[in-house]
Amino acid sequence: MYDVIVIGGGVIGGAVMRELTKYRLRVCLVEKEDDVAMGASKANSGIVHAGFDAPEGTNKAKFNVLGNRMMEGYAAELGVKFARIGSLVLAFSEEDMRLLSVLEARGVRNGVEGLSVIGQAELRAMEPNVSRNAVGALYAPTGGIVCPYELTIAAIGNAMDNGADLYTGFEAASITKANGVFTVKAASGKEVQGKLIINCAGLGAGHVAALAGDDGIKIGARIGEYILLDRESGGFVRHTLFTTPTKKGKGILVSPTVDGNILLGPTAEEAEEGNTDTTAAGMAAVTASAARMCENVPLFNTITSFAGVRAYSHDRHDFIIEESAAVEGLIHIAGIESPGLTSAPAIAKFAVEELVSKHLPLRKNENFSGRRAPDAFFKQLSAEEKNELIARDPAYGRIVCRCEQITEGEIVRAVHENPPACNIDAVKRRTRAGMGRCQGGFCQPSVAEIIARETGIPLEQVTKSGKASRLLMGRSK
Ligand SMILES: Cc1cc2nc3c(=O)[nH]c(=O)nc-3n(C[C@H](O)[C@H](O)[C@H](O)COP(=O)(O)OP(=O)(O)OC[C@H]3O[C@@H](n4cnc5c(N)ncnc54)[C@H](O)[C@@H]3O)c2cc1C
Fold it and tell me: Could you tell me the distance, in angstroms and rounded to a whole number, from the CA of residue 214 to the centre of ligand 1?
């Protein structure tokens, strides 16, 4: 019997799970995929937004600004890379310049600090590769970047280290309530019981609500396509560059990532729930917009393209963070589109302190330790540190991913650390093995062998990213 069952292992469910472990509560998280961070939290822009986009008084505005302030400490505690690089919304016309003033005034009302509208000369000094047609920009020094799946994995791992349970491959398929206790059953027949449910199921939040008897959550899906450039082009821009926002969102951006790549995108088109295909039209829209924003975009350094899907509220057009009116003890954190990544730590704090506390006493967990050791990437160590590590564990002396210089020791650690990586992409998200220029073409078979050896999963059954994504069909004689 758990006190709280969190449904959905994205950045929101992860932050909530960790926040709950600060108190003496029995907590579990159920996730339908084989790993965590498999929904919107896997594929997004990774921007810690300053907070001038959302209208004053909305949940989006409130939690964006609070989350932005909390992110530095949150990421540091979890050993996750974060950089406050600042953002620039570019203007290309007088009309755009007027819009920048509207955004600036809105940002000030939302509590964003340090905003200023700058002219062309200052803009070009800050960003030498910006288009000559850009006439000015809104500068937000509090904007930042973070790796979204690293943040999710670290929060869930830290919650597990503090005693919470994770059940992957557990798709909530039925929810019943009797005598004040919820029973959540998976299609596989597994079940968990708890006093409260926190619905953080992203695109599945409407379905999860309905399973529990609440038909009031309506979720739409909007796809965003991206192009990722190799680290060789890493210095192309220094800040996150946006165009002025449209009705569909913040528009296409050009931004550094915390790992030193350059990200172009996303588009914003209505999508089917599970579709993360990239399209020729999407790629054309991304490249056209990037070319409008910057001179000579180094597209020749493209290493991959991908897409993520936003879950938005059809009717409320805001984050839904409240207890269900229909089912007591069912708390929704739904419709968390952008800036959900930015807002995650603030949403989690609010949900636990203001919503969970109405049902359960929040007694401090004296044993809680919020610190998680950062992933000490081998390549970043000094020669002495490397030698010391190899002497302790020779697996650190074997490079598996040549592009990213990732060692066998790091992969073994990812397979055993909370939350354990059990497929090739899960290893990739934790170690960056396969994230480089060859995109895993060289190291995938070796990673599969290490997973098989360390977990006991037969090699033929090791998958790329769960379900039926097997690499091998069998052995040839
Ligand atoms: C293209 C794009 C760009 C974005 N850019 C930014 C940005 O730059 N900055 C920012 O702040 N935000 C950004 N966002 C928003 C941010 O990504 C989301 O707000 C955030 O990831 C939402 O997290 P979540 O945990 O609610 O959802 P998810 O990460 O989708 O997690 C939901 C989880 O629930 C699981 N699930 C669903 N149904 C069930 C079930 N029945 N049983 C068990 N598990 C279930 C899913 O498998 C999934 O893992 C962007 C989003 C997209 C798509």
Answer: 21
Considering the domain boundaries, does residue 46 fall inside one? no
Contact 195, 182 (CB under 8 A): yes
Among left, alpha and beta (phi > 0; psi -120 to 50; other), residue 392 is alpha
pLDDT score, position 3: 98
Separation of alpha carbons 435 and 403, rounded Å: 8
Cut 0.90: pTM above it: yes
Region of 404 on the Ramachandran plot (φ > 0 left; ψ -120 to 50 alpha; else beta) = alpha
Kindly give the pairing relationship between strand 27-30 and strand 165-167: parallel
Residues noted as catalytic: 49
Q: Is residue 155 part of a domain?
A: no
Where does 113-171 have alpha helices with state H?
120-126, 148-161
Give me ligand 1 centre to Cα 107, in Å.
25
pLDDT band (50, 70, 90) for residue 275: confident
Task: Dig out the tokens for 33 from the structure.
Answer: 């995929």
Q: How far is the CA of 278 from the centre of ligand 1 (A)?
A: 18
Q: What is the pLDDT of residue 251?
A: 87
Query: Do 407 and 291 lie in a common domain?
Result: no
Residue 111 maps to a domain:
yes
Q: Is the CB of 225 under 6 A from ligand 1?
A: no
Q: Indicate whether residue 32 lines ligand 1 (CB < 6 A).
A: yes
Both tokens of 354, joined, read 């203001």
On whether residue 44 sits in a domain, the answer given is no
What's the pLDDT band for 250 if we cut at 50, 70, 90?
Answer: confident
Q: Any idea what the CATH number is for the domain that residue 306 is in?
A: 3.30.9.10
Residue 60 beta carbon below 6 angstroms from any ligand 1 atom: no
Count of the separate structural domains present in the chain: 2
Q: Are 139 and 225 within one domain?
A: yes
DSSP reduced 3-state for 208 = helix
Domain with 227 in it = 83-144+220-312
